[in-house]
Every structure is written in structure tokens, then in C-alpha cells.
Amino acid sequence: MEVDDDDPVVQEIPVFLAKNLLEKLYVFQYPLRSVSAKAEAPHVIAARIKPKIQDVELEIEIPTESRFYDRSKGEAISINSDGVNPHMNPDESNFFKSTTMDKIMYTSTQAQVEPGRYAVGLLSNQELHLNPIHGILHVKPAFQYLDKADKNKEKSEMKETDEPESDDDTPEQITVKFARTETDRSKAAREKSFGFLQKKNAEESWINTQFHHFKSEESQLERRQLLCSRPDNTINNVTLPKKDYLNSLVGPRPNPQLAPETLSMNQIRHLPLSDQVKHLLVNVKVISFSCLCSVLQVSRDTQQQLLIAVQSVALLIQGNWVVKSEILYPYSEDRSKFSGKSKLVGVTGICPKILTKARDRVLHEFTLNRVVDRDALTRATRIPTLDMKTILSHIAIFKPTIGWEFRLPFDDDFVSR
User: Fold this and answer.
1) Cβ distance 405 to 396 under 8 Å?
2) DSSP for 341-370, written as a single string
3) What is the pLDDT of residue 213?
4) 20 to 30 Å CA-CA from 22: which of 59, 89, 170, 354?
5) Three-state SS across 90-104?
6) Spatial separation of the C-alpha atoms in residues 207 and 48, rounded to whole Å
7) For residues 238-257, average pLDDT
8) What are φ and ψ of residue 113, in 5° steps?
9) How far apart are the C-alpha atoms of 101 and 78, rounded to whole Å?
10) Is the domain of 242 the same as that of 278?
11) At residue 233, does pLDDT exceed 60?
12) Where does a domain end: 227, 254, 281?
């Protein structure tokens, strides 16, 4: 490995890759629990997992004897969920084990990161043992008892409004559907759909597990599995350059093809200037040139380059720059590029081409007037009211007495340049 005089090696330690817990090690993250909060460790009374879809449920006991516990509220929640006489119900149908709210459920969702790029490291006797992570899960409280209470309320209302059925047989219309040949693209989209994931979730059975406190003897024995049991003494002489060596460890930095709203300002500043302008305009929708220079930290020498970049993704309206409609709602006129239907956009889900033309009409009106009328624009563009309201809210402010006024004041300084 190359030696950097400015960053000398201060210590070398052996590194081992432990495989005792391969495909069994998960990292639980609790985004709603504060690290600084000094709370007692929760008492887990039940735990279960679906390993294929990486789904976890934890039942946390609620200390009903605590002086901070509202017993009357807990009993009301239990009645709404399990009824007045829960002992008359089958045991599996009751959410709570007693006549009061005595537990809360925590469920997991997979984190939007690739777990294969991470490992759990344990330093022991000046040796670093790395353990590959199989999954990273976000664990948050779930409120199934509220859903159950709503269903019970709906059932009781249906019983009150149901009329006795007539004995006459009435003809029932039956719709016959024929399945079409599924393309690879439609199959991939179907497998990402909510319905498919719900079906896959229902097909896998829960596996009950036993939860051990982190200070218990069982947990200490399991933690020993993090140590490599048979260290390989083979010395790997690294001769790669530093950049190639890091890429072989963690992989190259992925090309930031993420949605603009998912990028932080720090990530945006590492992009080319044209991409910086595009990502920023997609997020803010409308901005003045002086504010754009300030946010992107552009000097006077590079303002001309910034002006060229902003003209490709935005329109000049009342001295300010507004992102183009085709940037927000991209579509292609070439149908050969798509094997299926175009992705629907907007609040109600309409064709991006229609929404682009409607927004262009709105932008044209703002080039003529400071204030526009939403109802008139909705009738002219023939798009749903919710979509028109969303378009206007991005670039204008509603004032009850006059209508929708352009969000930023007229920029005389930029226009007079």
C-alpha cells in the first residue's frame, strides 16, 4: 500500500471476518427513541420474525402499576379494541391480555440502505472482528389496537343499518378478466407494488423467538459469536493503490441518481453546477438569482456559468427563476422507449404531458399578471382542482381577498442588469 507522509500509520492490528452469525445478524434502529432520554430498558414479553421478508414484531409490556399510567384511559382503549367482555372472545382475537392496555407493539420496516456495505465490528485483545450485517431494520410503535377499534365500530354501524335480505334471487353481474402476457418491466413493477408485498407478507408465517436482556447470560454467550472462532493466519499483502483498495472494501461511490428531494444540501454541492441548479430548482420551485448565488456559494466570476445553467432548467418570470414543467413532470414523445404506460404524476395521478401543459398555462398567466384566479385556470386546463392547487402553492401564495399572488416580489435588480 502507498505510504502517505501526511497521514502516517500509527498502529497495525489483525482484522478477521467472522461468519458465525452469517445471514443471522440484524441491526435494529429506533428512530423515535431519543438517545439522550434516560428511560428504563423496555420489557419485551414476546418477539417474532419473518426472516424471508425481514419483518419483526416486538411486544413491549406497559407498566400498568406505574403512577404515571392512566388506568381509566387504558381501560377505555381495551374496551374499544376487545369489547366490554374480552373473556367471552377467543384468546387469539384479543389484542390485550387483560381488561386494560397492558402492552404496545413495535413493528419494523427495512431501512433504505444496502446492508451488505456495513458490518458490526468488535475489538477484542487488539483484534478487530467484523461481522456482515444481513439486515437493517427501523423499529417503530404500531397501533393495531386503533385499527381494530375502527373495525369494531364499522361492524356495529353496519349491523344497525343492515336491512333483512329479500328471498328473491336477483341476477348478479360477473366480470370476466383475461390475464395479459407479463413483460419484465411490468413484473418488476408488480413485485414492488404494495399489494404484492402485502401478499408476500401474508404468505410467510411468523416464527416466535425468545428475547433475552442484553445483560443476561444468554446474551453474553451470543455476543461471543461475534468473535471469529478460527482466525485465518494468512497474511494478505495489499499492493493496491489507496483508491482501489477503498473501492474494493466499500465499493465505488454510487452515481447520485436519487430523487432530488432525497439529496441533502451537502450532497448537492458535490454535483456539477448544472446538476446543482436542477436539484435545487426542483426542490424550491421558484428562487431569485441573488438567492441562488448565495445558496450555491457562487462567486461573481462564475455567475455567467450559473446563468447559462439556470436557463436550461428554469424560466424567468417576474425577474425570478421558476423550474420548467418538463423538469418536474418528465415524459417522452417517443413511445418506443416505453414498453408500458407512462408513470402517472400529480396528486390525483394524471398523464405527465397533460400536467406539464396545464402548469405551462399557469406560468404564462404569471408572466402577465401578479395575481391569478384558480377557478378560471382549472376550467381552462381541465385538470383536477387538487392538482391545480398544488401547482399554485409551489409558486404563489393564496390571499383570500385577491386570489393567488406570485410568491416572490418582482426582481428589478436582476431585470435591470
Assistant:
1) yes
2) PPPPBTTTTB-HHHHHHHHHHHHHHHHH-S
3) 87
4) 59
5) CHHHCCCCCCCCCEE
6) 5
7) 65
8) -135, 155
9) 5
10) no
11) no
12) 254
Answer yes or no: is 165 within a domain. no
Does 84 fall in a domain?
A: no
Query: Residue 317 in 3-state DSSP?
Result: strand
SS3 372: strand
- Provide the residue type at 19 as one letter: K
Which residues have CB under 8 Å from 400's CB, separation 6+?
Answer: none
Judge if 6 and 43 occupy the same domain.
yes
pLDDT grade for 26, boundaries at 50, 70 and 90:
very high
Predicted confidence at residue 399, as pLDDT, reads: 92
Please report the DSSP string for 4-55 in residue order.
-TTS-------EEE--TTTTT-EEEE-TTS-SS---PPP-EEEEEEETTTTE
Q: Are residues 345 and 289 in the same domain?
A: yes
Q: What is the largest CA-CA distance in the chain?
A: 93
CA pair distance 278, 261, nearest whole angstrom: 11
Q: Are residues 244 and 281 in the same domain?
A: no
Q: Which residues of 307-324 are buried (b: 16+ CB within 10 A; e: fewer)?
A: bebbeebbbebbbbbbbb
First to last CA, the chain: 55
Mean pLDDT of 281-292: 91
Query: What is the model's pLDDT at position 366?
Result: 94
DSSP result, 158-172: HHHHPPPPPSS----
pLDDT over 60 at 291, yes or no: yes
Q: Which residue range forms the structural domain that includes residue 358? A: 260-415
Q: Is residue 44 part of a domain?
A: yes
C-alpha cell belonging to residue 145: 389496537
Of 183-192, 222-231, 367-376, least confident by mean pLDDT is: 183-192
Going by their DSSP bridges, the two strands 286-287 and 119-124 should be labelled as unpaired
Query: What's the predicted TM-score (pTM) here?
Result: 0.48
Distance (Å, rounded) from C-alpha 271 to C-alpha 255? 10
